[in-house]
Amino acid sequence: MSFYNQSLTTPEMPDIRLYFCPTAFVNAPIAPSGATFRLAGGLKWFGAFSVIMVSKGEIVQERVISVADINSFLNSLSTEMQLDAYKTISRIVAPRTSFKLGKNEIKLDHTHIVGILNITPDSFSDGGLYQNNVQSACETAKAMIQQGASLIDVGGESTRPGAEPVTEEEEKLRVMPVIDRLRESSLPISVDTRKASVISAVWEKTPAIFNDVSALSWDKNSLLVAAEKQYPVILMHHEESKDHEASSKKILIEVYNWLEKRIAVAEAAGISRDRIIIDPGIGFGKSFQDNLVLIRGIALFHGLGCPLMLGASRKKLIITFAGDTHPQDRLGGSLAIALHAADQGVQLLRVHDVRDTAQALTVWQALY
């Protein structure tokens, strides 16, 4: 019996839950077993599921089951577990709704590049490059679009560890002049902010995605404002620093459950799931091992039925492999992570180096 066809036993355990992570990815609807599922309606297919069994918050079993054998496995489950499994698998394969931002439409059937534009003095990689220089910021934004970015993510407050908080007014003073200029060129934008008043000021001028590292939890008005305007939102996971064992996948389940709860909160506030993007929050209160496990297993989050964003560009985890380099010298590591994420069907890559990432994605795709 092949590893793909091993059955997953369901011992008598209370509070059992199954998690389904697509695996065995291919770039065409073929597989050795003769059966594949299309991932999120995009240009990736997969031939198996890594099925993780969790009981009382602990991973107790994990097996890989081929797509060809998944129905037999599901038929072995209780009715309640079957229904939950079908819901998750349906979300994994369902096409993601495209986003419309004014004249721009972002179709989520392939991987897009999101160019980072920080209008801050203290961001970890590019702080100070564009503060008080609107023309330079806008020229960079236009260049990133020409280089292959589908979206420009504008931020006026650094979220690096130890960064000083910025008032609402100061953040608006940094961001709004750039937004005004970008609006003239009709560039598709997202705004990296935790503040409802900042995104509201942007929305008075132009459509934009609300990219909130607090998952709409930092500002009590964010849920209401986001629900009223009907623009897309990005919910990112964050937590206080907490270490996990190097071999443990528990962090995957914890982040999955946390994001699932935030999606439920957003839906209850009137934000439909089809305009929610999720981000596992690489580097935000997580250890090196946490970050590695999340990047390796990012395909698990397709089960939440939302487009995925990954922001690992130039992050500190790369120095573990490359030495203590300056953030701008972490291109190789950033590209390695970006290509892995694309292979896992991640729809949005938030990066600093747009030209190089676009080139890497183009060549990588051509090889397959």
Automatic annotation (TrEMBL):
Keywords: Folate biosynthesis, Magnesium, Metal-binding, Transferase. PROSITE patterns: DHPS_1, DHPS_2, PTERIN_BINDING. InterPro entries: DHP_synth-like, DHP_synth_dom, Dihydropteroate_synth-like_sf, Pterin-binding_dom. Residues 111-362 form the Pterin-binding domain. It catalyses: (7,8-dihydropterin-6-yl)methyl diphosphate + 4-aminobenzoate = 7,8-dihydropteroate + diphosphate. Gene3D superfamilies: Dihydropteroate synthase-like. One of its GO terms (biological process) is tetrahydrofolate biosynthetic process. It is an enzyme of class 2 (transferase). Its cofactor is Mg(2+). NCBIfam families: DHPS (TIGR01496). This is dihydropteroate synthase. It comes from Zymomonas mobilis.
